[in-house]
């Protein structure tokens, strides 16, 4: 028996070792993204070549993080390569019509710890579709040659966008850091521009950002598919928050539902901090402290979305924590919803934002004229809202969505098929510090528009019906008139509703 037992142990150990090895091989880190094909990245680089003529475009990838967080490439570099390697450099040559990536060499110590990443060589060329993938040290010689030729070099000037970033946020941070007398640092982009000018004084430096921003304004079918999935995930989170909502919860408890849903559906992070605001906290449109305990009868604003394979979404809903709208909430929400729908139903392709606004304004006027208000304060706030909306001179009816939740801007005259934006007109009732906002992700199509988040309820009856359903973290519906039971009071979970 001892010999037999020893043989069994050896066999078992070998089986485990082989299983672990096979599991490691089968689940090794992917070396290249599956978000897009190499052909789509190549087509984007070709458009850059067309825009820069005989010039050269040079971009830096993001660095590794000084913390134990997963690496995320910056948006511009990923948009042109799909390469997720720290400290990579890309050169797009408009004259030779070739692109070269310069990557750090293999680091065997890191690979043993974290798994393999893409390294210079033929395999990287095959994976990426780039003409060459060389060691990063070779970039210096390439820059010297560009300098000798006196080429025009296009470099990104705006600070890089990583997870949960927006163009406005990164520019604001870069400016504040530079102007801070106790800081004064340059952004990585400004530092790189200075280094290039020092090492290659014969080149002319131009800004690459307008070229890429114009390209990113119109989304490809695959980009739309990723935004659609990010929107689906955001909508699932909002709906689960509605189901789970109970008086007595804290705002951060509802926010945590989004965090769980995003991770469960393989999001790489968040598109922006969670805006979960109850009661008068919603009066601050970007309130995100999430520390308040939500009282019975209060409304909750839920505005949160994931970063899914470098693409984002932006969906907002409001709902009563108690599961039922009060008469006053019902009136104000109904008024806002009809004004909101007046804007949405006015959206048309190949039409300017000003014309859309004008048509929506006429619909709003007709609604207000025919609606019977119970509260004078609601009528006054509504009239102010419509007046402010109609007086707006902007050609925009919302903000762009894409790789960033407030995506890059570029000149445009009309809304064109392939554009993706949100609408989110803001309604303030100052006297009560009451705020109402909805937000949907809109795709402009050849024949009109598609509301990518239309599956998330907005009508009062649909919201109340959804909130009566069992939440995924609840064994059975708890009374909505009282706070949720404490952990010690929670009954055992039996036959719980499966997670989404």
Strand order of the largest sheet: 4-3-2-1-5-6
The average pLDDT value, as a whole number, equals 91
Report the β-strand fraction as a percent range: 5-15%
Number of helices: 15
Please give the domain count.
2
Helix content estimate = 40-55%
Task: Tell me the overall shape.
Answer: globular
Rg computed from alpha carbons, rounded to a whole number of angstroms: 27 Å
Largest sheet: 6 strands, mixed
Give the class from helix and strand content and strand pairing: alpha+beta
Classify the fold: give the CATH topology of the largest domain.
Creatine Amidinohydrolase
N- to C-terminal distance: 50 Å
Please identify, by name, the CATH architecture of the largest domain.
Answer: Alpha-Beta Complex
Give start-end ranges of low-pLDDT stretches: 1-28, 482-500
Question: What's a quick, concise take on this entry?
Answer:
The protein has 500 residues and is of the alpha+beta class. Helix content is 41%, strand content 13%.
Walk me through the structure.
This protein is an alpha+beta fold. It folds into 2 domains: 34-216, 3-Layer(aba) Sandwich (Creatine Amidinohydrolase, Chain A, domain 1); 221-485, Alpha-Beta Complex (Creatine Amidinohydrolase). 41% of the residues lie in helices and 13% in strands. The protein has 15 helices and 17 strands. The two termini are 50 Å apart.
């Amino acid at each position: 028996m001892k010999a037999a037992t020893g043989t069994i142990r050896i066999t078992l150990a070998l089986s485990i070792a082989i299983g672990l090895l096979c599991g490691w091989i089968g689940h090794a880190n992917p070396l290249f993204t599956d978000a897009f094909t190499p052909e789509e990245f190549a087509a984007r680089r070709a458009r850059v070549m067309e825009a820069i003529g005989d010039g050269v475009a040079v971009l830096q990838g993001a660095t590794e993080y000084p913390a134990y967080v997963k690496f995320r490439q910056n948006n511009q570099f990923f948009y042109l390569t799909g390469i997720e390697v720290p400290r990579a450099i890309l050169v797009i040559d408009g004259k030779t019509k070739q692109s070269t990536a310069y990557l750090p060499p293999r680091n065997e110590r890191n690979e043993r710890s974290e798994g393999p990443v893409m390294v210079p060589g033929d395999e990287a060329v095959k994976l990426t579709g780039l003409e060459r993938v060389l060691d990063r040290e070779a970039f210096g010689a390439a820059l010297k040659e560009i300098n000798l030729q006196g080429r025009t070099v296009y470099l990104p000037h705006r600070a890089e966008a990583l997870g949960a970033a927006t163009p406005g946020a990164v520019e604001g941070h870069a400016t504040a850091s530079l102007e801070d007398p106790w800081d004064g640092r340059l952004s990585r982009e400004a530092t790189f521009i200075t280094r290039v000018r020092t090492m290659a004084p014969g080149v002319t430096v131009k800004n690459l950002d307008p070229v890429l921003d114009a390209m990113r304004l119109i989304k490809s079918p695959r980009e739309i598919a990723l935004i659609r999935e990010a929107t689906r995930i955001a909508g699932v989170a909002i709906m689960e928050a509605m189901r789970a909502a109970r008086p007595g919860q804290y705002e951060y408890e509802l926010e945590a539902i989004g965090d769980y849903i995003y991770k469960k559906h393989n999001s790489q992070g968040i598109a922006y901090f969670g805006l979960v605001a109850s009661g008068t906290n919603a009066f601050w449109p970007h309130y995100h402290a999430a520390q308040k305990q939500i009282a019975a009868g209060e409304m909750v604003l839920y505005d949160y979305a994931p970063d899914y394979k470098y693409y984002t979404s932006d969906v907002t809903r409001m709902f009563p924590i108690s599961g039922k709208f009060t008469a006053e909430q019902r009136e104000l929400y109904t008024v806002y919803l009809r004004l909101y729908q007046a804007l949405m139903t006015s959206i048309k392709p190949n039409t300017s934002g000003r014309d859309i606004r004008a048509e929506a304004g006429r619909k709003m006027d007709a609604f207000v004229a025919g609606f019977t208000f119970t509260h004078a304060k609601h009528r006054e706030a509504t009239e102010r809202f419509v007046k402010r909306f109609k007086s707006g001179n902007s050609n925009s009816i919302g903000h762009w969505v894409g790789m960033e939740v407030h995506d890059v801007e570029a000149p445009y005259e009309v809304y064109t098929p392939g554009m993706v934006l949100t609408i989110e007109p803001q309604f303030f009732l100052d006297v009560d510090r009451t705020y109402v906002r909805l937000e949907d992700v809109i795709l402009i199509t050849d024949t009109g528009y598609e509301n990518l988040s239309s599956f998330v309820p907005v009508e009062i009856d649909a919201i109340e019906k959804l909130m009566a359903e069992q939440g995924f973290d609840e064994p059975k519906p708890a009374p909505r008139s009282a706070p949720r039971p404490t952990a010690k009071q929670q009954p055992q979970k039996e036959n719980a509703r499966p997670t989404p």
